[in-house]
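Hi R.,

Here's the chain you asked about this morning:
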Amino acid sequence: FALFLLALTSLVIALVRPVTITSIPVDQATIIMAIDVSLSMRSNDIPPSRLEAAEAAAISFIRRQKPGTQIGIVAFAGFAELVQPPTDDQEDLQSAVENLMLARRTAIGSGILKSLDAIAEVDSSIAPTVSEAIPNTGKPTQTPVPRGVYAPHIIVLLTDGVSNSGPQPLEAASQAVDRGVRIYTIGFGTDNGTIPFSGQPSQNDPFGGGFRMGIDEDTLKQIASMTGGKYYSASSAGELQTVFQRLPTSLITRNETTEISVFFTAIAALFAALAVTLALLWNPLT
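And the predicted structure, written out as tokens:
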């Protein structure tokens, strides 16, 4: 009787069509590189300049990726711009990086939101960011993913300063949390950075120029922590190259849902067969 009961229970469970969610590693994912192009990136404390060192490290990172890896480039200063949509064409990516243009101010939050929207363009399961969506257009909203569940996409955000324009960085990062997109932040530069402005070093340019405000490490660490990423610090071109080499792009996982009703159906059949066999052994037909 007990075996028949177990068989019936397994059959009922199978009818419910249970599923299991498994995180499996994937070799390829969309990687968005969000690069600060504020005027302070012209500083030559890291020769030949912070921007040129960042460009060299970014290009080396691109060249190391496996064929087929989709990478996009976002540049942000006072606003953010998608200068290269996700592509696996390394020549196009290198050209986009080499042609970055400097501008005033630093909008880290805008860089994050623009990066998320770039991911949304290639993955329909990722909704556009709230601030970019136009009301009453029927655009989908993002249902927050469960804690610890991540999309197979990452953002690598490099900056040398403090956000002084656009959305608050942590508010923008909360939208990455809702979408399961991890952000790896990089603080780049030294405490001695100034830039030539009209031929003279400037210490008080309020637009992302040569003033010594330093890197907002606390915010960058919070962004990385809340999204499941990691914060890195680099104060030289060599250190930045090492940081890009350590980015865990090979550990990106994708959640796959698998129906396991077949398993319970098989268990039910096994219990039923055992029950019939034992019944015949105990009560043989005459």
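Residues 2-18+260-282 form one domain.

Let me know if you need anything else.
M.
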